[in-house]
Design goal:
The radius of gyration is 36 Å and the shape is rod-shaped. The chain has helices at residues 4-22, 26-87. It is mainly α.
């Protein structure tokens, strides 16, 4: 029992020292909150930029798809005309 008490005291002191080192003062916590707030704003801005880029990319893709479809239809019409000219 006597040997157990010093071990418990030593463990308690170690836990207390670790917890005291983990505690931060109000200034440090406020600074961290401000930094986290700034990082949050940066991430929101980056997210908005990515969404805008994706929207622009989708517009370009849709335009290219429409142009390709028009060219494919024109190509089919020209092929049909060539066949009719060759037949006639």
């Amino acid at each position: 029992m006597k040997k157990l008490i010093p071990e418990i005291l030593l463990s308690s002191v170690i836990v207390l020292l670790i917890s005291l080192q983990a505690c931060k003062n109000d200034t440090e916590l406020q600074t961290q909150l401000m930094v986290l707030g700034n990082e949050k704003v940066k991430l929101i801005n980056q997210k908005d930029s990515v969404i805008k880029l994706l929207a622009n990319s989708k517009t370009v893709y849709d335009t290219l798809t429409a142009s390709y479809n028009n060219l494919a239809a024109d190509n089919d019409a020209l092929k049909a005309r060539i066949r009719s000219l060759q037949a006639g």
